[in-house]
Specification:
The structure is a single chain. About 0% of the residues lie in helices and about 45% in strands. It is an all-beta fold and about 325 residues long. It contains no helices and 22 strands. The chain is globular. The strands form six sheets. Strands 2-3-4-5 form a four-stranded antiparallel beta sheet, with no helix packed on it. Strands 6-7-8-9 form a four-stranded antiparallel beta sheet, with no helix packed on it.
């Protein structure tokens, strides 16, 4: 088995220079790995005041790898049958069932709002943000199962995992509740309803990812202090285990904080942390709002050591997606 050091950046966007919210999913039939990401537009100049609109109108992009993550090929965008027109998709989450079907949960915003207050940090926007559920057998053609009723019109950043009680749990950020993380449970493939939402972490968080590693369940999310981890025995009650990952890396394109993490377990105690970083400027070198900054996907090695998560972004490691 051949391994290699992860490329830095791991995945780039050859069209708009804007890979954000990356999630990785494996096609077991072909051993192909796919990256689904929100497709921002860092190399598009807009007239007038510095505009936040490039964070809206984002489709979900696709890149594929046939060599276990060594190289990636941009493949286009998903045509998701939710509403006609040019709409906005953020923060995808994908799970694969035993029958080979893929289930996609994504934040959906109607149209392309030019919203100066899109980065609400816990304050509701004028435009509702809702999470929708779709399924597919090939990652290209999707069936829409509808909008999730989550008790809020400002739900973003879904994360879905099969929990120890045999149900599927979906965690999300509720911007109408100050950015709190909330959760609902249901039963895939297509639940007719989800449970009433419960608050998991009342403080502001975003982009949660939940996974099992090193004998524990972990919830990792962006917080006011950066990337923060929480540990659990049952994926229900969470105990903070602290901030981790350096605030900035030294590899090419790896500066600034880790954003929107995804985790791919490798063995009992190690995993790959996949995330995106922003450059602080657009593709032309101008300092711009967050939505217009060029961005790339990166990978680093995540470990469980002494009951805590650790990650050195600068350390070399063998990288081979299973």
């Amino acid at each position: 088995m051949t391994t290699t050091t992860a490329a830095a950046p791991l995945i780039t966007d050859p069209l708009f220079d804007g890979v954000t919210d990356p999630v990785l999913v494996r096609d077991s039939a072909t051993s192909t790995w796919w990256c689904v990401f929100a497709h921002r537009r860092a190399n598009v100049r807009l007239s007038g005041r510095p505009s936040i609109a490039r964070c809206h109108g984002t489709p979900l992009g696709l890149a594929s790898s046939d060599d276990h993550g060594k190289s990636w090929l941009y493949r286009g965008t998903l045509d998701l049958p939710i509403e006609p027109g040019h709409n906005t998709f953020w923060g995808p989450a994908i799970v694969t069932l035993d029958d080979g079907t893929y289930h996609l949960f994504t934040t959906f915003i109607r149209g392309v709002p030019d919203d100066p207050a899109w980065d609400t940090h816990g304050r509701p926007s004028l435009w509702p943000r809702r999470i929708h559920h779709l399924s597919s057998t090939d990652l290209w053609h999707w069936r829409h199962h509808g909008r999730l009723e989550l008790g809020t019109d400002h739900a973003v950043d879904p994360c879905v995992a099969l929990t120890p009680d045999g149900s599927w749990t979906l965690w999300f950020k509720d911007e109408a509740a100050g950015g709190a993380l909330r959760a609902v449970t249901g039963h895939l493939p297509a639940p007719t309803s989800w449970s009433a939402p419960v608050t998991v972490l009342p403080q502001w968080h975003e982009s949660p990812v939940v996974f099992r590693l090193g004998g524990f369940w972990w919830l990792v999310a962006e917080s006011r202090a950066g990337l923060t981890s929480y540990r659990s025995d049952d994926a229900l009650a969470w105990e903070e285990s602290g901030a981790f990952v350096a605030t900035s890396g030294t590899r090419t394109g790896d500066g600034g904080p880790v954003r929107s993490p995804d985790v791919i377990p490798v063995d009992d105690s190690t995993a790959y942390l996949v995330y995106y970083t922003q450059s602080g400027h657009d593709s032309f070198g101008d300092q711009v709002p967050t939505s217009a900054q060029s961005s790339v996907a990166q990978a680093a090695l995540l470990r469980v050591e002494g009951g805590r998560l650790t990650c050195d972004r600068d350390a070399p490691f063998d990288f081979r997606l299973p």
